[in-house]
Amino acid sequence: MADMFSENSKTVLEYLQDNQDVEQTSETIAEGTGLAEKSVNGILTALQREISGHGQLIQRVEVEGFKKKVIKLTPEGRKADINAQKPEKSE
Questions:
Q1: Cα–Cα distance between 3 and 48 in angstroms, integer?
Q2: Which of 2, 36, 41, 58 has the fewest CB atoms within 10 Å around its CB?
Q3: Helix (H) or strand (E) holding 58
Q4: How far apart are CA 19 and CA 47, in angstroms?
Q5: CA-based nearest residue to 53, from 72, 79, 71, 15
Q6: pLDDT digits (tens, 9 = 90+) for 38-54
Q7: Which residues contact 24 (CB under 8 A, 6 or more apart)?
Q8: What are residue 3's DSSP bridge partners?
Q9: Is-contact 14 82, C-beta < 8 A?
Q10: How far is CA 89 from the centre of its chain?
Q11: Span 10-39, pLDDT tens digits
Q12: Which of 46, 67, 57 lies closest to 20 in space, CA to CA?
């Protein structure tokens, strides 16, 4: 079986789970994880899509006082296992 998330996706998701009480933008996530903001944006786009068995893990929300959208974990994102495995394809 293969990992559901890439190493960088795990880093971003774990960072968001560990910092749920802080309003984060792609820029602050990049600073906090040491990843390039462009990479973080790509990861966030992937986490925003429906992921098999998990649903959407994040939402981008407009918040007053922020130039960029704030990243919020969905209930699925809060409880997502960063070490989850992709389901095996049935034949």
A1: 18
A2: 2
A3: strand 58-61
A4: 16
A5: 79
A6: 999 999 999 998 776 66
A7: 16, 32, 70, 71
A8: 85
A9: yes
A10: 24
A11: 999 999 999 999 999 999 999 999 999 999
A12: 57
